[in-house]
Amino acid sequence: MRGCDWTGAVVLGLFCGGAAAVPAGYQDEQQPLPAEVPAVPQPPAGMQRIAGAEFAMGSASSLSLPEERPVHRVRVGEFWIDRFEVTSAEFAEFVAATGHVTTAELPVDLELLMAQLPPGTRPPAPEKLAPGSLVFVAPDEARGLSDFSQWWRWTLGASWKHPLGPGSTLEGLDRHPVVHVSFDDAQAFAAWAGKRLPTEAQWELAARGGLESGPFAWGTEPPSAELPRANIWQGRFPSENLLHDGFARTAPVGSFAPNGFGLHDMAGNVWEWCIDVYRPDEYLRRAGIELTVEPSGPVLEAQALRLAQRSIRGGSFLCSDHYCLRYRPSARSGNTADSSTSHMGIRCVWVPSD
Description:
The protein is an alpha+beta fold. It has helices at residues 88-98, 110-116, 183-192, 200-208, 282-286, 302-307; strands at 47-50, 53-57, 72-76, 79-82, 132-136, 152-156, 271-277, 292-293, 309-313, 333-336, 344-345, 349-350. The strands form four sheets. Strands 10-9-7-11 form a four-stranded mixed β-sheet. A three-stranded antiparallel β-sheet has the order 1-4-12, covered by helices on one side. It is globular.
């Protein structure tokens, strides 16, 4: 972890006030030299302390989805969390320092891809295995909302440096959240920054901002055209975006008011990776337990872990009231660890005991 190494001062001499010289090697046994002061771990800059707490995780509201139920009691210890999502500029600093190559910049792992697809699926053409990522492209018209291939396009050459594909750049996007980062990329960034990814429980406690059961990060009132509270989709998804919040895609971090803990963009903008393995029925597995302490998701063997989905939280600029209501603190989803898209990013935590 980056940080300062504080050490105590060492007294190297004595003021004698005119007395006889101190013999060499003499040390007053009543006044021993000060011991070295141990380093005190300090959180990296730009983080907010969240006190340890017990809270009701999940939601029983009319807006909740099956994977958010049942509500159950959870306790987490003290931690710090980034006030903002990781920006393109911060990720560029990480890449410059480490030489990290993101998943989107590497050829597709055919073996891993086929293991994630139904048996009998035909392998993609070799040219489709070139580096790339998924980019949202609004269709002129959508035939229902069950086929997401209508608005997601596999784009060769799309990456964190080229968010819309070849020819696009990061010009003007330094303060926007980095996108096209996989779980593996997020893990690598967090380790370099001296942090880690949050558990779902840490993320939800932080997103609530001190509100025990409100459906939104800011309270009970849904966002409106007159008072947009987050970067989400307004209008008829996926073809009509009325842009009441002012942004067609990502927004610069901090563009909207923070929640009660001073955290920005805990709703919308980009999805944020969590460290937990994702299971839609995880809360059912906790049913009947009086208090779950520091939950971190299912534990899997190495092979299963390689293919497992990881949890993502917070929703994105593509969430809307009639398609994706997952910009709420209790909402959950998952994606495979090698996935990258134009609406997934990073927020980190720091725990003193790690």
